[in-house]
Amino acid sequence: MNVLYLAAGLLIGACLAMAAAWGVSERTGRSGWADTVWSFAVGGLGVMAALAPVSGREVSERQLLVACLAAAWSLRLGLHIARRTAAGPEDARYAWLRGQWGARAPSRLFWFLQVQAVAAFLLAGCMGLAAHRPGPIGAGDVLGIALLVLAVAGAGRADDQLRRFKADPANAGRICDSGLWAFSRHPNYFFEWLGWWGYAAIAIDPTGGYFAGWLALAGPAFMYWLLVHVSGIPPLEAHLHRSRGAAFAAYRDSVSAFWPWPRRPFGNGDGEGAA
User: Fold this and answer.
1) Cα–Cα dist 77/186, whole Å
2) Which 8-state DSSP code applies to residue 171?
3) Which of 42, 202, 241, 248 is 20 to 30 A removed from 14 (C-alpha atoms)?
């Protein structure tokens, strides 16, 4: 299969998926469905990129490995967001964006999701780069598996801790500042970012025999930028600052935003958990 044809197919697929996500979000009034579709789209496109017969050879063990890792990550994240969206109100980040966009919110959301389609294409490409690294399974693959298992388990643990915290009526209006949330205000984001280092570890050939593998470093670099500076932490923390005021400010001053780090003492921890 020609690599350019594969890339074009992945990009078109991503754009169509996010166009459908926009339609569902507008129909239901819950933009969280867009994140659900995005998660499944990245995983599905990643599996396609991993298993594509680019080299003309039989599917390798590494291709199967990366396809399984991509599917497991996608299913965990997508199902988690789907359950959260079905049970809860509009995602705070999207609610904030809609408020900023005003009457132009529907069209702005459509193009915003098309930008996410490009992001899905880029990330699926990183999975494909890892899958098509030539050579036998080695230390890089073991490291990549370990990072991805840690990432999926860590993000799942953080999400479960926050879900349980919010489900307890006694915690209404309080900050989730226990468990992993005592070390990072967004431990789920941290672990999601960490997972993309797993694909880079699998893709990179330290002997220099597979130069394309170094391009997989775009995955963790892009996800860090997206989560920390664009659509992750900034809009969510803006919402928490407005809705929880001094309580969130105390939590913010005590706990690292992204990197897990021992906390600094602060007040009594009243407020709502960051997500």
Assistant:
1) 15
2) G
3) 202
